[in-house]
Backbone:
């Protein structure tokens, strides 16, 4: 049995190359997680899992380490095609409860649209778990206000990588990740 993560950080990156796998590698380099053996997991933010800045999380990584993450990944070799990869996070006010992480990957959206969409997905999943009554057809801004006034959700946020396909037809890859850490907080310095 694996331990429960104690921390999470968000990161994103974009890479371009004539080979799709190398474009993915370059996106991971841009996100500063290329030296990890990444294992993608689903969408639960563990209770009491602390959100830390990327700058604090990356130094805790060891090359070759098995590293759990929620990953959104989009790629294209179509010149001018817009791609997005976004992670949304929703945390409950009560730290003893779990939250949600959503991943969204798509085409044609702006960075803001993708971020809002991923954030909305995570917040909606959390709200339904907490029993918050909402209209699923209402606009995200309306639901966000409801969630904020419910006093059950402490915050929502997102991180998005957005890119446009290279003019020469090379592969372009965008990744966004929520990277889990098990390092005790006192080891962060």
Residues:
């Amino acid at each position: 049995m694996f331990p429960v993560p104690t921390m999470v950080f968000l990161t994103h990156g974009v890479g371009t190359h004539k080979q799709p796998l190398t474009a993915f590698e370059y996106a991971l380099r841009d996100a500063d997680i290329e030296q990890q053996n990444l294992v993608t997991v689903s969408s639960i933010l563990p209770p009491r899992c602390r959100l830390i800045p990327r700058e604090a999380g990356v130094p805790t990584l060891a090359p070759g380490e098995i590293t759990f993450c929620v990953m959104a990944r989009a790629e294209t070799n179509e010149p001018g095609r817009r791609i997005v990869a976004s992670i949304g996070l929703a945390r409950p006010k009560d730290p003893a409860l779990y939250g949600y992480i959503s991943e969204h990957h798509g085409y044609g959206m702006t960075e803001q649209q993708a971020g809002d969409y991923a954030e909305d997905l995570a917040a909606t999943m959390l709200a339904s778990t907490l029993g918050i009554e909402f209209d699923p057809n209402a606009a995200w801004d309306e639901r966000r206000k409801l969630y904020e006034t419910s006093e059950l959700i402490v915050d929502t946020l997102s991180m998005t990588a957005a890119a446009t396909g290279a003019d020469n037809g090379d592969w372009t890859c965008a990744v966004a990740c929520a990277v889990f850490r098990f390092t005790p907080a006192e080891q962060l310095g």
Remarks:
- The chain has a mean pLDDT of 92.
